[in-house]
């Protein structure tokens, strides 16, 4: 064993050992409990960032820990390889997206290996491999036949810069999530997956996911957005038509003062014919994004369409408006507006001076002034005819019954969740496997003709998808009669690939089926690890896909992932300067990376000042924020690994805070982890230098040795609970450090002491091995332990060691400390008193005096009162 810790020497050797021995390649073993540990697979963006390092280290620690628990652990990795960035990079660097993607994969694979991740590389795949996407194409054609996918014209969010359709969630404040361009509305034919057919199941299934954070379950519940309401018809004046609306507040029916319809609503379209002003307004409404966030924040606008509705109960005339905040694809695309009790309706009524009427009196005693704002709380009905005096529930039922009994309305459950639009007009994705026949039919590509391979050797200039102008791709034959037909040129949303990859890892080489029997052995995923940004969509789509695959007979069970850990961000200090322009006006902010600065620190290592090396002038210290390119506060993991070794980087990523919290990356932190490694190395080295210790004979141990052993086993108990159950790796590591401090203070050089230390170091190395596997491998060998630490079992708590053999008592005479006694644990009171009285020093103060009272605090203190 080298006396100095040299990670650059040992880490590659250990990685070779794992590779040569195929340590992480697993097969199904029905005799062993399986454990499937998965981190959300990465997009091959080019290089790993610190967020990746943290995410994948967490997964690796859990996987290695479970392996030590004797389980058959699967930890695979692959690449979420389709998507926009490859196209953007291709345009910039003039390389086809496929080449760019595969180069990145090569590089990042090397980085994962360099980090010592225990992956079963034999299962690796990229979603851009035709052998992978052929099966989702096949699945799509199955779903077509089952009626679970369909094509319809839909209003979509159009990103004019990226030239693509965006999902609602990809629109942030009315702008494209990547390009930042203002999003427009367009209507084009799209493929949809009927996720709404599974909506109730997706909702109730959340109740079974005890291993998921509550926050994620709540987000999914809100996203699904189940509401119970009433659909009711308002007759249109001078016509046989009716305007059907959906409301969750039928109790406010008597407060309706206007109606509003979406710009795409047939009533509005009809009214716009011959009304150019209205037509212009409807056109304007289409320009804005249909995302809910955008609708919340934008200015509410409307215009009367020149039609009145009649109140179904009072018969009053009510004007109908077209309004930009009413969504066509929710409810019925029309609303009854109640400005007295809905904030949005109030805002709109105030703007257009429409009447506002109070029909609900809330229960609280607060002042309510309808002229100052809507009263949204539920309460007692007033000014509501026969329904006045009723409370919400009673009124809901009475009004619903009134409409249902007359055939003018019905109770209805509505969901915010819409069907999932999976068509993308982008090139770098899996082709949607359909053929457009000359007679207008849309046909699935026959199974035998799959996969529809995306041409990779393309000239990509960014002006639309190259396959859209590639006859050799487009031209095909009608599978029914061989007549000329064309291929669909849209590709799948990349969430399509990431919705089932977890299952494919069970049998990545299955070439005659999407999944085979192995999926039943490995699924569900026991531990899934990933970012909270995927709390809603990715996880909802995966839950949906799992059910689709279940109903196809491919997997068992309802849910794909039993436990979910969402890790926190990696943050770092920011530095900036407020730039001033020539005219003295502020001209924006410049951000600086710490490597460009000279930092001043206080004695605790905190940064108190910074100057730019280049000009020697100060820069300001900003907040601690998520590492990002824009704020230039990122730290390159590669640099850290080169400088300190993978183990140090892994240790710091795990040791500072619990995994769900934000981790602040600091120089002192990483330095501290490196020092810890050097100290651990030296300590084990010194121990090993003493030669082989004798076998541990517990009966022969003295108090001090028993105390260290007790601490050791208490630490094992804590680390086991912290890692296995609580997933707070930081507190487990802290406990091990504490134990190391006790070892440092243990000056016993006897053979028995040596044996206890051997037990302690062996357990420490085993416990640290999931976090710092390279160093642990080498030290394990140095300690003379059997086999490789990767195959070692997790240390077991010796319960008998936890029972304290002796107790330390403080002995006072008249409240003054006179002695400290070590007595056998559980000693009887009489014996304890006698031992205390027999102490030489105690006797000096009690001699010749009368003992009036003896107070005993068990396990702690004996106070002898003399007088
Ligand atoms: C009258 C009313 C009075 C409403 C009141 C609310 C409060 P959830 O719970 O999300 O389902 N709404 C219905 N369809 C809409 C559409 N296409 N676009 C915009 N808004 C629509 O919300 C249901 C409520 O959202 C409905 O109840 C309706 O407004 C509105 F004091 O009707 B309510």
Overview of the molecule:
The protein is an alpha+beta fold. It is built from 27 helices and 35 strands. Strands 26, 27, 28, 29, 30 and 31 form a 6-stranded mixed beta sheet that branches. It has a 4-stranded parallel beta sheet with strand order 2-1-24-25, with helices on one face. Strand 19 and strand 20 form a beta hairpin. The radius of gyration is 35 Å and the shape is globular. It starts with 6 loop residues before the first helix and ends with a strand. The model has no long low-confidence stretch (mean pLDDT 93). Ligand ANZ binds next to strand 9 and strand 13.
Mean pLDDT: 93
Q: How much helix is in the residues? A: 25-40%
What would the principal axes of the Cα set say about the shape?
Answer: globular
Poorly predicted segments: none
The ligands found in this model are: ligand ANZ
**Count of individual helical segments:** 27
* Number of DSSP-assigned strands: 35
Oligomerization category of the chains in this entry: single chain
The helix/strand class is alpha+beta
Overall radius of gyration: 35 Å
**Termini gap:** 65 Å
Major sheet size, sense and barrel closure: 6 strands, mixed
């Amino acid at each position: 064993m080298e006396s100095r810790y040299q990670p650059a020497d040992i880490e590659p050797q250990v990685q070779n050992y794992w590779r040569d021995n195929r340590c992480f390649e697993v097969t199904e073993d029905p005799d062993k409990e399986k454990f499937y540990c998965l981190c959300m697979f990465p997009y091959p963006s080019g290089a790993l960032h610190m967020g990746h390092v943290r995410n994948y280290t967490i997964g690796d620690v859990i996987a290695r820990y479970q392996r030590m628990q004797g389980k058959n652990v699967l930890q695979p990795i692959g690449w979420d390889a389709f998507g926009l960035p490859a196209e953007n990079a291709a345009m910039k660097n003039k390389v086809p997206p496929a080449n760019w993607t595969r180069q990145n994969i090569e590089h990042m694979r090397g980085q994962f290996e360099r980090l010592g991740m225990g992956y079963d590389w034999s299962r690796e795949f990229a979603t851009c491999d035709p052998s992978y996407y052929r099966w989702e194409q096949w699945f799509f054609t199955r779903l077509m036949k089952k009626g679970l996918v369909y094509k319809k014209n839909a209003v979509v969010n159009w990103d004019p810069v990226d030239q693509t359709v965006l999902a609602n969630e990809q629109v942030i404040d009315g702008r494209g999530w990547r390009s930042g361009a203002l999003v427009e509305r367009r209507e084009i034919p799209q493929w949809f997956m009927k996720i709404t057919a599974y909506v109730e199941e997706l909702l109730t299934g959340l109740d079974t996911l005890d291993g998921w954070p509550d926050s994620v379950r709540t987000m999914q519940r809100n996203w699904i957005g189940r509401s119970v309401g009433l659909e009711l018809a308002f007759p249109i004046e001078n016509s046989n038509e009716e305007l059907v609306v959906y409301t969750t507040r039928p109790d406010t029916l008597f407060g309706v003062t206007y109606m509003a319809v979406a710009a795409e609503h047939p009533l509005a379209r009809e009214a716009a014919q011959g009304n150019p002003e209205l037509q212009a307004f409807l056109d304007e409404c289409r320009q804005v994004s249909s995302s809910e966030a955008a609708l919340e924040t934008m200015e509410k606008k409307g215009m009367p369409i020149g039609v009145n509705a009649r109140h179904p109960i009072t018969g009053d005339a009510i004007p109908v408006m077209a309004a930009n905040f009413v969504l066509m694809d929710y409810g019925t695309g029309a609303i009854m507006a109640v400005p007295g009790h809905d904030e949005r309706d109030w805002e709109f009524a105030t703007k257009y001076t429409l009447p506002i009427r109070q029909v609900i009196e809330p229960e609280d005693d607060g002042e309510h002034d309808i002229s100052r704002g809507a009263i949204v709380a539920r309460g007692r009905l007033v000014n509501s005819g026969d329904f006045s005096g009723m409370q919400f529930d009673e009124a809901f039922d009475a009004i619903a019954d009134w409409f249902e009994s007359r055939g003018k309305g019905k109770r209805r459950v509505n969901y915010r969740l819409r069907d999932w639009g999976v068509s993308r007009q982008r090139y770098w994705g899996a082709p949607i496997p359909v053929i457009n026949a000359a007679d207008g039919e849309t046909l699935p590509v026959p199974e035998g003709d799959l996969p529809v391979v995306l041409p990779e050797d393309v000239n990509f200039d960014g002006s639309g998808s190259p396959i859209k102008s590639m006859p050799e791709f487009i031209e095909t034959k009608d599978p029914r009669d061989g007549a000329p037909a064309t291929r669909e040129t849209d590709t799948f949303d990349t969430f399509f690939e990431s919705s089932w990859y977890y299952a494919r890892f069970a049998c990545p080489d299955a070439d005659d089926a999407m999944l085979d029997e192995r999926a039943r052995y490995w699924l569900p995923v026991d531990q899934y690890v990933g970012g909270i940004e995927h709390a809603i969509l990715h996880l909802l789509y995966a839950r949906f896909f799992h059910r689709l695959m279940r109903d196809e007979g491919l997997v068992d069970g309802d849910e794909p992932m039993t436990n979910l850990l969402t890790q926190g961000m990696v943050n770092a200090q920011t530095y900036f300067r407020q730039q001033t322009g020539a005219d003295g006006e502020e001209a924006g902010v410049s951000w600086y990376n710490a490597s460009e600065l000279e930092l001043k620190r206080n004695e605790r290592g905190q940064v108190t000042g910074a100057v730019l090396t280049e000009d020697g002038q100060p820069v300001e210290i900003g907040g601690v924020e998520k590492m990002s390119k824009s704020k230039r506060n990122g730290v390159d993991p590669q640099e850290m690994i080169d400088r300190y070794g993978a183990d140090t980087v892994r240790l710091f990523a795990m040791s500072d805070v619990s995994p769900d919290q934000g981790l602040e990356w600091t120089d002192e932190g990483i330095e501290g982890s490196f020092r810890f490694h050097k100290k651990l190395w030296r300590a084990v080295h010194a121990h090993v230098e003493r030669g082989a210790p004798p076998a541990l004979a517990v009966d022969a141990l003295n108090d001090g040795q028993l105390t260290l052993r007790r601490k050791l086993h208490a630490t094992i108990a804590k680390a086991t609970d912290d890692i296995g159950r609580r997933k707070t790796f930081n507190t487990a590591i802290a406990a091990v450090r504490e134990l190391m401090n006790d070892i440092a203070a243990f000056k016993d050089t006897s053979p028995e002491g040596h044996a206890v230390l051997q037990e302690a170091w062996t357990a420490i190395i085993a416990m640290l091995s999931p976090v710092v596997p390279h160093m642990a491998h080498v030290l394990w060998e140095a300690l003379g332990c059997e086999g490789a630490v990767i195959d070692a079992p997790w240390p077991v708590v010796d319960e008998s060691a936890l029972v304290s053999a002796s107790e330390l008592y403080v002995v006072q005479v008249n409240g003054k400390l006179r002695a400290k006694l070590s007595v056998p644990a559980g000693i009887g009171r009489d014996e304890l008193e006698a031992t205390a009285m027999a102490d030489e020093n105690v006797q000096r103060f009690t001699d010749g005096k009368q003992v009036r009272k003896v107070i005993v605090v068990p396990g702690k203190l004996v106070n002898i009162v003399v007088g």
